Inverse folding.
């Protein structure tokens, strides 16, 4: 009861004339970011029993005003009333993990959940959702043609072998169709675990090699310890390529975020993966590419405000293979900037790496020990499709369709011309999320 009174006070604070006028959906479409108008509309729809429209309106406002915890509390109360277990779980987890959520607000959330649980069975609820994704990537140099159109073999520099245009291709397009199902359970207020199963199908337009399908699965656990947010994980992936060696990888890692204060947090990770190639009559020496990868990073995030963040990351990796000339250390730094806009989240990331190899590739050059420097820069914009195409909300009232736009440049400079390559990528993707009711 106290929570409901609190929500009513919040709503009155934001709206001066709540019931003065009857707001139409057309007005909302014309003014999707008007806070007062949209809150009035949400309350109006709640009174009329149209809770789905109430939720859709509040979810959009929550994205437009991510720092406004009052809107999130209002939305949470409606989600609980609708018994939307998946959305309640995601909402609570997001708010409780948000360093900007005050202790007072966390207590209100906890009280609400305690009261709600008294009305339910004591057993914890499972939740699940299915993501369906379609993506297209355009690449200007899919075969990795070198910058000066030359390669080295046996210490001799020669022209790049444009023998078969279907094998040596520059500009090309890859289409991805993917499905991923996630099953999760909240163990208690501070921990949960997730199981994910995924399948991807990737087709390349021009190149005869490169088509593949990928099976994957992962298991992760999430736990809060005071200001620490820890997540260990396991994964397995098995790509199946056309005209290339197949392999499978297993890996494990642990990721932890330490919240120092509302402005600063530190994220660090340790991971290991083991990749094994399939040897057969067609690829008798494929197992020589077997590898182990040890990776680590430490990242510092600084929050300028509730919707602006600057990140800096130090990276140290080591890759070991049976081919000694493919064994190397990698070290570098990455800088990123993120900002939330009404149309989505913008991210700019630039990563510089140095790769130092341990053995020479004698069949390429017996004189030069390979050393690479790479700079990868990425621009992305992602969010819900309703944010960039408001009219889609007519058929996407539950905000379950997500978009992503990504532009990436990879520039590798190497002392061996074979690896001196620059590539540009542009990817656009859409994901539809379907919530699944799980039997208790």
């Amino acid at each position: 009861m106290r929570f409901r009174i609190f929500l009513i006070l919040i709503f009155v604070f934001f709206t001066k004339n709540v019931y003065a006028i009857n707001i139409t959906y057309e007005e909302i479409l014309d003014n999707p970011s008007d806070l007062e108008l949209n809150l009035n509309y949400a309350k109006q729809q709640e009174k009329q029993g149209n809770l789905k429209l109430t939720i859709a309106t509040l979810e959009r406002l929550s994205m437009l005003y991510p720092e406004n915890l009052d809107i999130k509390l209002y939305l949470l109360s409606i989600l609980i009333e609708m018994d939307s277990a998946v959305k309640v779980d995601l909402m609570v987890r997001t708010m409780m993990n948000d360093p900007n959520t005050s202790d007072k607000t966390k207590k209100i959330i906890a009280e609400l959940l305690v009261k709600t649980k008294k009305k339910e069975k004591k057993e914890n609820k499972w939740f699940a959702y299915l993501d369906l994704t379609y993506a297209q990537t355009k690449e200007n140099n899919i075969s990795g043609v070198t910058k000066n159109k030359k390669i080295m073999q046996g210490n001799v520099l020669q022209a790049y072998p444009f023998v078969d245009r279907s094998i040596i291709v520059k500009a090309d397009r890859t289409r991805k169709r993917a499905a991923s199902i996630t099953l999760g359970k909240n163990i208690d207020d501070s921990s949960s675990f997730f199981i994910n199963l995924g399948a991807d199908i990737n087709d390349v337009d021009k190149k005869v090699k490169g088509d593949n399908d990928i099976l994957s699965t992962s298991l992760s656990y999430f736990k809060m310890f005071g200001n620490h947010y820890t997540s260990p994980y396991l994964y397995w992936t098995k790509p199946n390529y056309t005209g290339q060696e197949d392999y499978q990888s297993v890996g494990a890692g642990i990721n932890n975020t330490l919240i120092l204060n509302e402005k600063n947090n530190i994220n660090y990770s340790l991971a290991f993966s083991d990749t094994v190639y399939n040897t057969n009559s067609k690829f008798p020496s494929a197992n020589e590419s077997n590898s182990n990868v040890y990776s680590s990073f430490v990242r510092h995030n600084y929050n300028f405000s509730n919707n602006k963040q600057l990140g800096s990351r130090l990276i140290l990796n080591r890759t070991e293979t049976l081919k000694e000339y493919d064994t190397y250390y990698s070290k570098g730094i990455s800088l990123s900037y993120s900002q939330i806009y009404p149309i989505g989240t913008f991210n700019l990331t630039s990563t510089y790496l140095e790769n130092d190899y341990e053995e020479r590739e004698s069949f390429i050059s017996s004189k030069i020990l390979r050393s690479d420097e790479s700079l990868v820069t990425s621009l992305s914009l992602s969010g819900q499709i309703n944010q960039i195409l408001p009219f889609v909300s007519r058929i996407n009232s539950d905000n379950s369709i997500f978009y992503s736009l990504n532009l990436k440049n990879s520039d590798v400079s190497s002392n061996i011309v074979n690896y001196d390559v620059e590539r540009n990528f542009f990817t656009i993707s859409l994901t539809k999320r379907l919530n699944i009711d799980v039997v208790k």
Summary: Residues 103-118 form the longest helix (16 residues). Helices lie at 2-14, 25-30, 35-47, 51-64, 69-82, 85-97, 103-118, 385-388. The longest strand covers residues 172-188.
